[in-house]
Write a structure and sequence with these properties.
With 222 residues, this protein is mainly beta. It contains two helices and 14 strands. It is 10% helix and 30% strand. A three-stranded antiparallel sheet has the order 3-5-4, with no helix packed on it. Strands 8-9-10 form a three-stranded antiparallel sheet, with no helix packed on it. It has a two-stranded antiparallel ribbon with strand order 1-2. It comes from Hippolais icterina (icterine warbler).
Length: 222
């Protein structure tokens, strides 16, 4: 009945098809007559102005009053997720911010960071690294405080003048020794330290032994 009231035969369509906004394909209207721009998620729709079915959208009349059009929405049987008031389809990838990327999955969403979460250890040329927000850039970056570096260099120079026999000409920094690699007998313990002539971070090793290994039985010679 609606088709008979709204659809004219034969079809009368404009010679030039409409120019659609990005993401809205050309489709046949509800009469199957003329090419129109498919309505997108959240846009108004009715019998003639159809939704983009390739995106799984249907015209939802559940919240519309009698005699008015509906709104393009996902089908009820299709799972999706809602983030910040926006609904995403199952499997759709989106970025709530420039720092994370998320994927809609099983009614929820999984996110991964897009900024590197690396850790910068202190070095002689950068003893006080810190992460700061750079204007115009999304991800924070590591910078060195020139003032702290200059103060450290002055302190090192003063210490060198007061004690010419200083073993390490830089501020000592290192991790604790790791547990012994062997449960019995000789093994190795490691640490990261800058206590060397170049004052550069390096991995150091030393021998260690928790307990002596038990003697083998006489039937099994060493």
């Amino acid at each position: 009945q609606v088709c008979a009231q709204l659809c004219r035969r034969p079809c009368y369509c404009p010679w030039v098809p409409p120019r659609c906004p990005r993401g809205s394909p050309l489709v046949l209207d509800g009469c199957g007559c003329c090419k129109i721009c498919a309505r997108r998620l959240g846009e108004p729709c009715d019998f003639l102005h159809v939704c983009d079915q390739s995106q799984g959208l249907v015209c939802d009349y559940s919240s519309a009053s009698a005699g008015t059009g509906g709104t393009c929405n996902f089908e009820d049987d299709e799972e999706g997720c809602e983030v910040n008031g926006r609904v995403y389809r199952e499997g759709e990838v989106f970025q709530p911010s420039c720092k994370i990327q998320c994927r809609c999955l099983d009614g929820g969403f999984n996110c991964i960071p897009l900024c590197q979460e690396d850790v910068r250890l202190p070095t002689p040329d950068c003893p006080y690294p810190r992460r700061v927000e750079i204007p115009g850039k999304c991800c924070p970056e590591w910078v060195c405080d020139a003032q702290d570096q200059r103060l450290l260099q002055d302190a090192m120079a003063a210490a060198g003048a007061a004690s010419p026999l200083l073993r390490f000409p830089c501020q000592e920094w290192g991790t604790e020794w790791s547990p012994c690699s062997a449960t019995c007998g000789l093994g190795f313990a490691t640490r990261v330290s800058n206590q060397n002539r170049s004052c550069r971070l390096e991995t150091q090793r030393r021998l260690c032994m928790r307990t002596p290994c038990p003697a083998l039985p006489a039937a099994f010679p060493a």
